[in-house]
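pipeline: protein-struct stage 2 | run 1193 | Two component transcriptional regulator, LuxR family
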Amino acid sequence: MTIRIIVADDHPIYRDGVVKSLEETGEFRVVGTASSAQEAARLAEVKHPDIALLDLSMPGGGLTAVKAISAAGSAKYVAMLTVSEEDGHVSDALKFGAIAYILKGVSASELRKVLKGVAEGEAHVSPNLAAKVLTYMSREDPSTPASPLEDLTKREEDILRLVSKGQSNKEVAIALDLQEKTVKHYMTVIMGKLHARNRVEAALIAHEVWGRAE
């Protein structure tokens, strides 16, 4: 199945390069491009893409576009593609509805791989941002428990360990000999126990706690 995507970035040369990189394998079809937050929001309403891929620093602000598109439900998923490594930007993007935060230094093949996961509902934060974003989130929310993983069952822990390493639900299901829908159910329970707003936050919590212990 071809993944329908819109690309919003105010640098035409870079945007055209992204479009070419996405379409060259036939796995993606770019159904529209935009150069501002307002254009991106309008385009999403018209095209209803599987993914809205947004730059953070375009006119009007990428975060404004995330809010508008997420609130309208005009794209199935929202992903950020940006140069910003600021903790607050990552946290706000996830809070406002993005499920992926990708840095622009990524290769074309890696971008396609991440976005194929996004199209399946898989969250992603560029690995070098994970630990410091969790620290920022914890600072924002002082009610975060000191040991948030203590209430997980053994099976839930096994699943979260694999998710925190970047594995998709399908890959986790294969590794643990489970149905993919069972893994999705477990992730819903895990996010509830961790008070995580989304899959990314759950993975960040796991990465911080278990990474510190190893």
